[in-house]
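Annotated sample (chain length 325).
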Amino acid sequence: MKAVVYQKYGSPEVLEFKEVERPVPKKDGEVLIKVRAASLNRGDWRMMRGKPFVARMAGGLFKPRKAILGADIAGTIEAVGRNVRRFKPGDDVFGDITFLGAGGFAEYTVARENVLAGMPAGLTFEEAAAVPMAAVTALQGLRDKGKIRPGQSVLIHGASGGVGTFAIQLAKAFGSEVTAVCGPGSLDLARSLGADRVLDYTREDFAMDGLRYDLILAVNGDRSLSEYKRALNPGGIYVAVGGSNKQIFQAMFLGSLMSMGGRRKMGILMAKSSAADLDVITGLLAAGKIRPVIDRSFPLSEAAEAMRYLDAGHVKGKIVLTVSE
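Output written by the structure step:
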């Protein structure tokens, strides 16, 4: 089979499109998937670069432990291993295989059935591949960490990327009033996804306009914790999702200190792959309450170029790799 392989950490030039051995389900509950599409995540970029260095603790200290990136996939079950009960050959599925070591940038991959969900009717493989990690992250950030409730005022900072576009839609589905912060090229997109108020960060500063929010979800946010805290109502919650090493460090270690004895909570989301949450997302997709946003698609053979496009920034929604028949 063809796959995008990397043997050392570095820039997109380390990615090679080459022939490799097709994987085989070996453990209980594993299935072989014919991959039809896979989407890029910032985590793929970090693993390719081997930065921050802590990422190598899971992926390999001096060189990649697994040679194929790709967590978000959509495809068709080709074969099943022992004791597989949820799926059969021919079923169309999608899911996040991060904690299985990834491997989605290939014509075939092996995954456990318990991280997969059946594809909802009406979605293309490309659309389905754009969903799992971003949508589940947004759901866990709003519902679990943010304790979102109907009628709350919610600010989505970084609203135009993969997580942000789902966060707008999910917050509206929860019955909240949503303010989206994004660049000038994404204002119409944010409105089309249901945002009640849209701020162009090049012209308006949410941290200085005097408005307060019950929940702030900062997706790769770039403001200080004190600025986010100042924009919260009493009893409000700030949730960091990704960001620079500095932002992650501050949210993890200073957030709890800033929350002590106060009425505003500051924290960070450590999202986890969840089949149960993916089933929730599947239901919302089927009901038409949320939809994936795809900025651009690339063939699998152009994964390196797709990575360069991701790193250039200002991606609207998701970048998808398509796998030919």
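Annotation: The CA atoms of residues 299 and 322 lie 5 Å apart.
Annotation: The chain has ten helices and 15 strands.
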